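Checklist before submission:
- one chain only
- standard amino acids only
- sequence pasted in full

Submission:
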Amino acid sequence: MFTFIMDSSRVDRPVRQSDRFRELAETLSSPRRRAILAVLEDTDASSVRKLATRLVDVERDRDGDVSDRRRETVVSLAHVHLPWLDDRGLVDWDRESGAVALTDAARGGDFELLERVAVAVTDGESPVDDR
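Returned file contents:
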């Protein structure tokens, strides 16, 4: 299980608990983002290319040429997932050098929040009571 929390210091508006749940649920709803966080949790820092290689290894069930899948993964990381995770304070991503790592906040471990959201996402439920 991941040991990260949402870094509210990067958010420009006040963050309500339900907003944190929704944002974390949306983040964890992506299998690719869950895989990115799991891979980065196992390494201190990485480059986008190394991360893409590890993700291709993790996502072995996909068909296609490995080098094509790696290129597609690099594009998806650079244009979708890393900006998303960086904006939410879960990863530090240097667009120029390509270096990527979990933030200290992501390694901080708000286990109760993460557990509730991860279980709800896995079960297809909302972790937020909208009543």
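Reviewer check: The chain has one domain: 16-120.
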